[in-house]
Specification:
flat, five-stranded mixed β-sheet, alpha+beta, about 15% strand, 7 helices, about 210 residues
C-alpha cells in the first residue's frame, strides 16, 4: 500500500472517530491533532512525488529548474557553483538494438551510479531523455572534474544487468558570479557537445 493511500484511510478513520467522540472534548482535540499530522504527511508526500522522476527516482527537470535558479540567485561573491550534464553515449543505438525496456533499465542503473558517486552537497536530476544533471555548490572546475571523472570511470567499470556496454560523456560549467540558469546550462551544453565529439570524455568550461 502506498503512503498516500494509507493517509487517506487514516483520514477517513479519524473523521469517523470525530463523529463518534464529538461529545468528549479531550478525545476530540487529540483526533484533530492526528488529522493535522496526517494532512501534513499527505501534503509532503504529494509534493515530494511531484519532484521525482519515476523511472530513475532522481529529482525531475521541473525541480532542477527551480533549484538551479534558486542557487544561482543565492550565490555569494567569490563562491563557485558547478553544473554537470552527463549524457549516455550512443543511447539511441542501445534502444534500437536492445529495445526500450533495456534502455529504461540502463537509465535506472546509471541513476544509481550517479547517486553513489556524488558528494553529499551535490544533487542529481533526470534532465531529460538520456541526460542527467548534477548541481554542485561551492565547487571549482578542478573539483567538478574529479567528480565527473569518478562517474565516468564508475560507468565504464559497472556491469549492467542488461549486459550492455555503456559509457558517458560529461560537460561541466562553473561560475563564480551570479548568472541566469539559462546561461550556465548553455555553457554546460557547450562543454558536453565538445565531450561528445570524442565520447567517454569530460570537458569543463569556466564562465
Amino acid at each position: 500500500m502506498k503512503i498516500i493511500d494509507f493517509c487517506v484511510i487514516i483520514l477517513l478513520f479519524l473523521i469517523t472517530l470525530i463523529t463518534y467522540y464529538a461529545a468528549n472534548s479531550i478525545v476530540f482535540i487529540l483526533i484533530q491533532i492526528f488529522i493535522c499530522i496526517t494532512i501534513c504527511i499527505y501534503t509532503y508526500v504529494l509534493k515530494n512525488n511531484a519532484r521525482i522522476d519515476k523511472l530513475t527516482s532522481l529529482y525531475n527537470r521541473k525541480y532542477f529548474d527551480y533549484i538551479l535558479s534558486d542557487k544561482l540567485k543565492r550565490l555569494r561573491s567569490r563562491a563557485n557553483l558547478a553544473l554537470l550534464i552527463c549524457d549516455i553515449d550512443n543511447f539511441k543505438l542501445i534502444n534500437d538494438t536492445y529495445g526500450h525496456v533495456t534502455g529504461d533499465a540502463v537509465l535506472a542503473e546509471l541513476a544509481d551510479i550517479l547517486k553513489a558517486n556524488i558528494r553529499k552537497s551535490d544533487t542529481a536530476y533526470r534532465y531529460g531523455g538520456e541526460e542527467f544533471a548534477i548541481i554542485m555548490p561551492n565547487t571549482n572546475c578542478n573539483e567538478a572534474e574529479v567528480v565527473a571523472m569518478r562517474i565516468k570511470k564508475a560507468v565504464e567499470k559497472h556491469y549492467f544487468k542488461t549486459n550492455v556496454t555503456v559509457t558517458v560523456s560529461v560537460g561541466v560549467a562553473v561560475t563564480d558570479y551570479k548568472i541566469s540558469a539559462v546561461d550556465i546550462v548553455i555553457k554546460a551544453d557547450k562543454a558536453l557537445y565538445i565531450a561528445k565529439k570524442q565520447k567517454n570524455t569530460v570537458v569543463c568550461l569556466q564562465m
